[in-house]
Design a protein that fits this description.
This protein is an alpha/beta fold. Helices cover 40% and strands 22% of the residues.
Length: 238
């Protein structure tokens, strides 16, 4: 079980579709897509360590009876995707663009490999919660591979629409996680203090148990302090 940012109830997959999870990390969205329907999924990332973890995680979900679906992890850069034009019906890019200097080039590559009429789901840290993290700790974003920008939602929306794609909908996610990251940033130099450790244990418990109370609490918090903004787009058909 993992923490998904993209809502697959909104981003519905159909049997036979090809799905790219760009910047897949340890495979959370790749594995969810694989389990969702009879689709062919590619998880791409630059980190060989993360790809190794993703491959190991996938082993516990892999079902030999699901012969009409597949999941493969490959190393590659979002700046130059190793795929032909119009390869994928769906592309996911979650919590990636805030790490990349030339994110516009990544968006161009996504548009190139996405089929006409295909859909694109993207998420980045939301402006206000991210600004609080940056204000509380320079180390939070100055670490190697850290965040190099704070997106405004309209800025990202306009950049994707310029590729061109049509905006469909958006929402916020992970409202329970913003206070955790604020606490981590506040006590960054002290390490994992008791309060941070307990909050993390609560988040793990919530992920595993999914109690109705925290589900409703997160729905209440998401519009206010949701950690991520998630947007959905459709590539223009010719």
């Amino acid at each position: 079980m993992s923490l998904e940012t993209v809502d697959f109830d909104r981003f519905k997959l159909k049997p036979g579709e090809r799905v790219l999870d760009l910047g897949c990390g340890e495979g959370r969205h790749s594995i969810t897509a694989y389990l969702n329907d009879d689709v062919d999924v590619v998880g791409l990332d630059l980190s060989l360590a993360d790809l190794g973890t993703a491959t190991q995680r996938f082993e516990q979900f892999k079902n030999q009876d699901l012969t009409r679906r597949s999941l493969n992890f490959v190393a590659g850069s979002g700046l130059h995707l190793p795929f032909a034009d119009h390869t994928f019906h769906k592309v996911v890019c979650s919590e990636v663009l805030e790490h990349i200097h030339d994110y516009q080039q990544v968006l161009k590559e996504i548009h190139r490999v996405l089929m006409p009429g295909g859909q694109f789901a993207v998420s980045v840290p939301r402006f206000f919660p991210e600004w609080v993290c940056w204000s509380l700790s320079k180390a939070y974003h100055n670490q190697k591979g850290g965040h190099i920008r704070i997106f405004k939602a309209r800025e990202l929306k306009n950049a994707v629409c310029a590729t061109p794609m049509a905006f469909q909908s958006s929402h916020w996610a992970h409202g329970l996680h913003s206070p955790y990251w604020w606490l981590r940033c506040l006590f960054w130099n002290q390490g994992e203090v008791w309060l941070v450790r307990k909050y993390h244990q609560m988040l793990v418990w919530d992920l595993m148990q999914k109690p109705r109370f925290t589900l409703w609490l997160e729905r209440l918090l998401n519009p206010l302090i949701g950690k991520s903004v998630v947007m959905y787009f459709k590539r223009h058909a010719p």
